[in-house]
Design a protein that fits this description.
single chain; mainly beta; three-stranded antiparallel sheet; flat
């Protein structure tokens, strides 16, 4: 069984929907027990185009040669900020050369 996370939503400009798959987890077997899958979520222009109705889905992708039934327990799903563009720059006022050479 393998699965992926999909974020989707209607574009704010009304031109359709955006579907993004930021995390694709490798195939897992029952005898592996509890496994983890994680990865970075990079926000690009496609995400910015989605309006306020963002949906998160976890989609199962089962192998047709095996049973499609599985008991799956998701725990500790989170999205956290790691890095991004600067929203401002703060320079200590005690640095006399902060505006360049005097």
């Amino acid at each position: 069984l393998k699965y992926y996370v999909q974020l989707k939503g209607p574009r704010a400009d009304g031109s359709g929907w955006t579907h993004k798959q930021p995390l694709k987890c490798p195939e897992q077997m029952q005898d592996q027990g509890w496994v983890e899958c994680s990865g970075p979520l990079l926000i690009d222009e496609d995400y910015e185009a989605i309006g306020q109705d963002l949906e998160l889905e976890v989609i199962m992708d089962s192998n047709q040669d095996t049973s499609p039934w599985a008991v799956v327990d998701y725990d500790d799903i989170r999205i956290s900020f790691a890095s991004g563009p600067a929203e401002g720059l703060k320079v200590d006022g005690g640095i006399t050369t902060r505006w360049g050479p005097n």
